[in-house]
Amino acid sequence: MKPVKEMVAEANLEVDHMPAAEARALHGQEAVTFVDLRDVRELQREGMIPGAFHCPRGMLEFWIDPDSPYAREEFRQDKRFVFYCGSGWRSALAAKAAQDMGLHGVCHIEDGFEGWKEAGGPVTAKA
């Protein structure tokens, strides 16, 4: 069995990642989409990055694939996609999967939403 920590470390060798403090500089840029991968209960409990697009982790591959009946227009845009989760583990694996599927401009916040809050990033309630 391969431990998830090892999978996350391997993903981080292959995908761009940055601490939340650095990701804050990208927030609000028109060419950047923040993608929140957390469960809806986490969003309701903790809020989210303002303007982020919510994509539950379990739907990511289906929403990215243009041939899927669940394909989403948000992933058809020529933008940089900044994935995040609670602590950076799910987002590392998701960024790797998205990159493997051919989505360009993918990166993730290595310290997650927790790091975002610690870095003083803005938070809003889930609409």
TrEMBL record:
Domain Rhodanese, first and last residues per copy: 28-125
InterPro entries recorded: Rhodanese-like_dom, Rhodanese-like_dom_sf
A family per Pfam: Rhodanese
Domain of life where this protein originates: Bacteria
CDD domains: Polysulfide_ST (cd01447)
GO molecular function list: thiosulfate-cyanide sulfurtransferase activity
PROSITE patterns with a match to the protein in the record: RHODANESE_3
Name of the protein this chain belongs to: Rhodanese-like domain-containing protein
Species for this entry: Halovulum marinum
Lineage: Bacteria, Pseudomonadati, Pseudomonadota, Alphaproteobacteria, Rhodobacterales
